[in-house]
Amino acid sequence: QVRLVESGGGLVQPGGSLRLSCSASGSIFRVNAMGWYRQGPGKERELVAAVTGGGSTNYGDSVKGRFTISRDNAKNTVYLQMNNLKPEDTAVYFCSVEGLTYTRATFGSWGQGTQVTVSS
Predict the structure, then answer these.
(1) Average predicted confidence (pLDDT) for the chain
(2) How far apart are CA 73 and CA 60, in angstroms?
(3) Sign of the alpha-carbon torsion through 67, 68, 73, 74
(4) 90: three-class secondary structure by DSSP
(5) Per-residue pLDDT averaged across 44-68, rounded?
(6) Are 49 and 95 in contact (CB under 8 A)?
(7) Beta pairing partners, 97
(8) Residue 81 pLDDT greater than 90, yes or no
């Protein structure tokens, strides 16, 4: 079973910064795509940022220029650097990882979620 552990959430003032981390462990042969999603109060879950196995990145329009996704393949870890945070960024952030297990089966896993609150 593939497991994801997230960390780095918290309470910050508008304009502040946070860095989220997500580490994958278990029967992982290869990690392909990795990404971050979020779900704010009264909203549906939406894509924040994603990176493919080939290194291509994709960002939601509302976070372009403020957030940066990166990965450390040796550690099976993905990061989300969040700068110039706004109250609208308040949400539970979920990590997503896709890849292959040791048996070459495709897997897709979600983290437990970490709360980010932006408020003065």
Answers:
(1) 97
(2) 23
(3) negative
(4) coil
(5) 97
(6) no
(7) 34, 109
(8) yes
